[in-house]
Amino acid sequence: MIDASKNDASDVGLAQRASSGAMTAFIILFAMNLLDYLDRNILVSIQPQIRDDLKVTNEQWGLLMSVFLISYSVFSPVMGWLGDRYRRTWLLAFGVGLWSLATVGSGLARSYGDLVLARSILGIGEATYGVIAPTILIDVFSRHQRSRVLSAFYLAMPFGSALGIGLGPLIAKNYGWHMAFYVVGVPGLVAALFAFLLPEPVRGASEGIPVDRLKAHEKAGATREDYLDLMVNSSYTYSVFGMAAYTFGIGGMLVWVPNYLFNTRHFDQQRAGTMLGLCTFTAAIVGMTLGGWLTDRLAKTRPQALFLVSGLSMIASIPFVLLALFSTSEPVIYAMIFAAEALMFVNTGPCNAIVANVVQPNLRAAAFAISTFAIHFLGDIWSPWLIGKAADLFGDPETMASSYGQLLKAIGAVPTQVVGHPPENIVAGLLMVVPALLLSGIVLIAGARHLPREMALMQAKLKAAPRPSQAPETTAL
């Protein structure tokens, strides 16, 4: 048994260790995340040049996005298992280095097959980073800062997306699309070295639990029963399914909204890329900052706010998505994209904080990995391909002559055509985003009632002696 008289002193020392190096860790991990999403979206922003050069169809382009996400999702559970057992900083260095080499490989591609191979390898590296980095941040920052810290960390996602969307056309226009990948890949190789500067905290260092108890759980590792408990953890599953539906929507938008602006509304590519990047960036600052601050504030007295704020924001974004798709005014379209994205980004920090709050520290990398697998396999693995498929299908005059095609025509979702390409109906494809956002909002709101009980249960498990495990002991390699 642990001497209760020593708990206060232990917790003070624990807080000091948890805060040591926290900002260094945040800056390094944020920079890596920025490069991650810069790479993903520089591909999207230069799609006209790549598709013309490699003769890629809409369906193939959507499939290319899916290939990366399949690789990313399949390898995430493997990296999550490793991340709960071995030194996380070394795994991060491997992951960031591998994805950076794959990015350079994308620039070397001379065929569609080459590009598919490079993006598949990219997914392995990014899976390593994506499931391990949040667990380090959770351990080095206070529990009461989680929503804000994770919101700030994931700001790199839209910030990197905005930079990719804005810089991609500029680099491709002046130096060719191959150079765009080199510009992103080389800094990633440098960033991989900085992983060795990161702290390696005891798993659960921010939970307010004595260090010796945390080390006992870390040494024991997760048991089969822990994994089974995770699958019936209502807060965890509602959060994952809510994020999956959201990811279907936002993933499809990030891939196809640039094409919608270029081909459907015939906006200048470079100007549209810059404006869309600016909208995404500012929306992320507003949405993620508001989401993190508001939910941390409300959750002090009502933990359910993590779910409720996220769910209501998803539903509130739907009218703005519709206005963006059916308006013909350039200023209105950009304003509506900004409003929709700001509301959608509200959920990022709170939903990830839910996972951290209800999952034991020695299981968190696996929990984030399973979450990553689920949200992509149920979400944006399919949405870019399905939206591209629908855009081709409802570009066909025969399909538009059907009753559903006539309904789309009546609401303004009509085919357009770019010289040298068959007709397409990107608005019809992007309408798939609407039911996904509605479903996300409903699921997240439904999950709110479970959170207080499961947060208390996680803390009780962490304070108790660990279950016996047959798993190998956690090691620092």
Architecture overview:
By secondary structure, this protein is mainly alpha-helical. The protein has a single domain, classed as Up-down Bundle (Growth Hormone, Chain: A). 78% of the residues lie in helices and 0% in strands. The chain has 23 helices and no strands. Helix 4 runs antiparallel to helix 17 and helix 12 packs antiparallel against helix 16. It is globular. The two termini are 30 Å apart. The relative contact order is 0.15.
Large-scale geometry: globular
**Stretches where pLDDT falls below 50 for ≥5 residues?**
1-18, 470-476
User: What's the total helix number?
Assistant: 23
Q: What integer is the average pLDDT? A: 82
- The CATH topology assignment is Growth Hormone, Chain: A
Structural class: mainly alpha
Number of domains: 1
Compute the number of strand runs: 0
Tell me the CATH superfamily: MFS general substrate transporter like domains
Helical residue percent? Answer: over 70%
Q: What oligomeric state best describes the polypeptide chains here?
A: single chain
CATH class: Mainly Alpha
H/E series: HHHHHHHHHHHHHHHHHHHHHHH
CATH architecture: Up-down Bundle
| Rg estimate, integer Å | 23 Å
CA distance, first residue to last residue:
30 Å
